[in-house]
Amino acid sequence: MCNNDSRSSISIHSNDGSSSIDYIMATNNEGLEEEEDNLSSTPSNTSNPVASTSSFSVYPCSKCYKDLQQCDLTLPSCSRCASGSFECIYTKTEPKANHVSQVLNTMNKVMDQWQDSIDKMAKDFAQKTRDFGQRVDQSFKKKPLQPFAWKITTTNKGLSVESNVNSFNDLSKLVDQFKKSMHITSRDDDDQQNGIHERAADLLDDERHRMAQSAELDDTSSIHTSSGFSFGVWNSWGHPAHALPDNYPVDISPELTDSLVDLYCRTPCCSAIRLPIVDTTEFLARYHDPDPAKKPSTVLVYAVCAMAARNAFQMHVWSKRPAHDTPKYNMGKALSMAYCLKGREQLAECFDDPTIDNCQAAFLLSYCNHQNGYPGVIYIYEWISFTMAQELGLYDEGRVLDPRESILVWCLYYFNTWYRVLQGVSNMSAESGQFHPNCSLPPPQPKPVLDLMDVDNAEPPKEMIDYYVYTEWYCMIQLQVLRHDVMSRLLSAQAAGKQDTTLSMDLLAMQDRLQEFYNNLSVEWKDPDLESIALDQMAAGTPEPCCGSSYNSFGEQQQEKQHYHVDIHEFARFCILNVHVHYNINKILLYQAFFPSDHVPTSPFSVQCLYICIDAAYAITQTLDIMVKHHDECNIPLLGFLFANMVYIKLLNYNDDQYQEFARRCLEQSINVSKMSKAYLYDFEMTRNLVSVMELDVRNACGGRPLSVVDDEMYSFIVPSPPTLPPFAPHQPFQ
C-alpha cells in the first residue's frame, strides 16, 4: 500500500496491503519498550540513512524462491542475484516459513530505524526551535521608550507646559506621550461619564501591570517547580506494563456485537462523554439498515464494541451481577481487548481507504488501547486517524466542515495536546501545529426547552443529551486551546530564564482570556454550589449515578433494555462539574507562576495569586470528592488532582503550620479519593499507574512519611477546610 500525502511523515510501500500494517501494529509496542530500555545506553546512529519500505520487498525474488535459498529482499536486486548476475524479479508467491521470518526481521529493523530517526529529528527540531526563539527574542526586543521630563504650571494666562527636546522627532514623541497621559473629555455628560470609566479602566490596568511586574515569579516557571514536583508524568504514567497480545481467548458472536452496539448508543455517560465523535442515532440507524451499502464499516463497529465493552458493559452490566458472580472482575477489559484485536485486523485491510467511518474507528481504537493499558500503540492509531482526516480534506484551508467532521478534528487536537502537556515539553512543535484545525468549532445551540415533568418521568430526549455533551466538549476544547498557549509560553520562559521580561504581561493577557471564557458561560454553567451538592447527596445516603438500569446480567439487559435510563439532572450536573475541573486547572497554570515555592509571598499581587490558586485547587478537590463518593460517576477526571497537588506541595514548603496541615490533608485526600473511584477499581485510562505516580510524588513531598489510608466505608464525607488566610485589602486587580 502507499500513502502519498505529502503532509504525512511516513510512507508505507508494500505489495500486500493487508499484511504490512498488521505486522507494524503487532510489533510496534515491543519496539517502543526496547527503545525506552536502551535509550540511555545506546546512542542513535546518525550516519546511517533512514530506512524506507521502498527499499525491500515482502516477497522473495523468483530466483531465491526457486532455489530454496535465503533472499535478503533488497530492491531492485537482491545481493545473491547481483553477485551472480542473475535477473532478479520479485513476484507475489506463496510465502514459506523462512521467507516470512526474513520479512518480519527486515520490517522490524526498518521500524527501529524509523523510530530512532523520528526521535532524533524531534529532539533536533526542538533544540533548534528553542535556539531560534531565543535569538529572535534578543533581536527584536525593544527598549522601552524613555519618558520626557515636563511640568505644568499655572500662570495668569492659563496653563504653561515646560519641557526640553532635541529634535522634531523627539517633539513628536513628546506629543504622543501627552496623548497617552492626558485624558481630555467633552462637556457633554455622556462623554464625560465615558471618559471617567475609560480613565478608571486605564488606571486599574496600569496598576495591575505594575503589580505583576513586582510579583515574585517562580524561578523555574512552574513547569518543574522548585519544590521538585511536576505534572509532566506521561512518560512514567504511560509506560506499558505488558506487550500487546496477538490474540485474546474470547469468542465474538453477532449477538454479542449487536448487544454492545446497542449498549454504546444508550450510554452517553460512558461513550459520548469520553469521545463524542459518533452520532449514536445515525450510527444505530445505519447499523440496522438492511442495505449493506449504508451500514457502518466493520472496523468502526468493532471499535464501538471495544469502547462499550470496556466502560458501559463493565459499569452497567457486569458490575451489577450478584457478589458470587465476581462483579469486580475486569470482564469488560477482556471483551474490549478481543474487539481491539479484531479492529486491528480490519484496519489493516482498509488502511488505504480513508473514510469518516475508518477515521473515527482508528481514533476510537487509539483511545481503547489507552483504556486497556497499551499506550505504546495509541500514537500509531492516532496518526492513522490524523492522516486519513488529512486525505479527506478536513485540514484544507477554506474547507467548511459539518458538525461530525468538526468535532472529530478538534478531538484529535484535544487529546494530542494533552499528551504534550503531560510530557512537560514544548507544544510549539511542527506536529502540534499540524493537529490544530483550520476551522473554528461551532458554538453550541441554545438549550432545548422541555417540560421538566416529562423529563423526570421518561427517557430524556436525545437533543437534551446532545446539548450537554456538545456544550461540555465545546468548553473543554476552548480551555485546551488556552492551556496549549499557556504551556508553550511557560516553557519558552523556562528556556529563556531570567532574560524573559515579558512573561508577566503575556500571562496577564491569558488570564484575561480565561476570564472572558468564564464570562461567556451561561448562568447554568457558572459556579456550581459544591457544598449544597455534597449536603444533598449526604442526606440521600446513597450515591446517585447519572445513569441506571434494573438488570443483573447481560442476557437480562437485552430483554429489559427499556428499563435503562439516563438521569438528565445528574448527567447535566456531571458535565458542568467536569468543565469546572478543567477551568480550575487552567486557573492554576496561569496564576501559580506568580508566587514562590519556598516561602509565603509578600507582594500584594503574589498574595492575591496564591489565594486564587488555593481556591482553584480546593475546588478541584471538592469536586472530585463529590463525583467519586456521592455520584458514583462513570468517568472521573482524576487528572485534576495532579494540578491541585502542585499547589498543595508548594504550601508544604511554607513555614506555617496552618498551610502545611491543610496541604498534607488535601494530598492524602487526593490519593484516598482516587483509590475509591471506579476508575481505579477497573483501571480505566490506566488510573492505577496514574495513582501510583501521584502517590510517589506525595510521599516524597511529605518527607517519606506514610500516608493516612482509610477504609472507604468509614471515610468521612467532609473534605479539609482551607486555612484561614490573613487579611488582604489592597487593590483588587481581578474584579
Biggest beta sheet attributes: 2 strands, antiparallel
Quick one: overall form? globular
Mean pLDDT: 76
β-strand percent reads under 5%
Rg estimate, integer Å: 30 Å
Strand order of the largest sheet: 1-2
GO molecular function, one term: zinc ion binding
Organism: Parasitella parasitica
Pfam families: Fungal_trans (PF04082), Zn_clus (PF00172)
GO biological process, one term: DNA-templated transcription
Lay out the secondary structure.
Elements: H1 17-38, H2 62-67, H3 79-84, H4 97-140, E1 150-155, E2 158-163, H5 168-181, H6 189-213, H7 234-237, H8 254-265, H9 280-287, H10 298-316, H11 331-349, H12 356-371, H13 378-391, H14 403-423, H15 430-435, H16 452-457, H17 462-496, H18 503-519, H19 530-540, E3 547-548, H20 554-559, E4 565-566, H21 568-591, H22 604-629, H23 640-652, H24 657-676, H25 678-682, H26 687-701
Antiparallel strand pairs: 1-2, 3-4
Helix pairs in contact: 1-4, 1-11, 8-9, 8-10, 10-11, 10-12, 11-12, 12-13, 14-17, 17-18, 17-21, 18-21, 19-22, 21-22, 21-23, 22-23, 22-24, 23-24, 24-26
Characterise the protein shown here.
- By secondary structure, the chain is mostly helical.
- Among the domains are: 17-123, no CATH class; 250-442, no CATH class.
- It is built from 26 helices and four strands.
- The protein has a two-stranded antiparallel sheet with strand order 1-2. It has a two-stranded antiparallel ribbon with strand order 3-4.
- A hairpin with a 2-residue loop joins strand 1 (150-155) and strand 2 (158-163).
- It is globular, with a radius of gyration of 30 Å.
